[in-house]
Each structure stands twice: as C-alpha cells, then as structure tokens.
Amino acid sequence: MKCPECEGDISIPEDALEGEIVACPDCGASFELYKKGDKTFDLRPIQAVGEDWGE
Length: 55
What we know:
25% strand, 55 residues, globular
C-alpha cells in the first residue's frame, strides 16, 4: 500500500484489524486502517489531539 504523504510503501500485516495504527517507514506518518471492502483496507490520517492550555 502506498503512503498518502510520500508515496512510500507501507506493508499491511496479514492479520491486521480495523482501527490498527500503521506508520510509514519512509516519512514516519501514522495512519489508521479502515475496511474498504470485504477483505481490503485503506488508510486514513490519525486525528492528532493537541493540548489546549487555555489559549
């Protein structure tokens, strides 16, 4: 599977589960796996939750 950020190769394990986090070995971006079809996955960016220091 290709990284949406840098087009690097991201390998998805055979026993991967929906909601699992995978990282690109080239750029380090993290993605969540979600079911695209019966047996295929797609990637979506992880929503980073930043700290709110009352600003």
